[in-house]
């Protein structure tokens, strides 16, 4: 089921948490930041929206690192109901796509709930003070592979954040599969 996050809540503070990474280490979200900001990406392994953009996310994370923006990806999906999103499959997914950033497992889904994450992918772009400046899409591609020359919305917004400390006032929300929540009962 497709879901769309709300518009950017400018200035909302990032929330730290310690989660296990596919590299076998524990990571604090805040330790993933760069001197100019942090991109927190809620993704998963099986979502067609994520699969369509994952190589561009890896590219953008590399390009953002060069301008002082760190990246962390988090999977919060219920892996019991969606085994493709298991921790072992997260490890394989990260390796297959050459992740150069931590990919963390939010097994109890607390981090996704604290962030108000809605879908995969859901991007939260923070400035150097870890205040929200971007909550939009990676680009216009949706579930398809983007044609050559597609505007890099996420990269351009975070480049602006790195340079000015502020995100663009007009943002187009991401769209993706809804996060697969565990039953409350």
UniProtKB/TrEMBL annotation:
Instruction: Please name the InterPro entries in this protein's record.
Output: AhpC/TSA, PRX-like1, Thioredoxin-like_sf, Thioredoxin_domain
Under Pfam families, the record lists: AhpC-TSA
Please report the stretch or stretches of sequence annotated as the Thioredoxin domain.
8-163
According to the lineage, what is the superkingdom? Bacteria
Please give the name of this protein.
Thioredoxin family protein
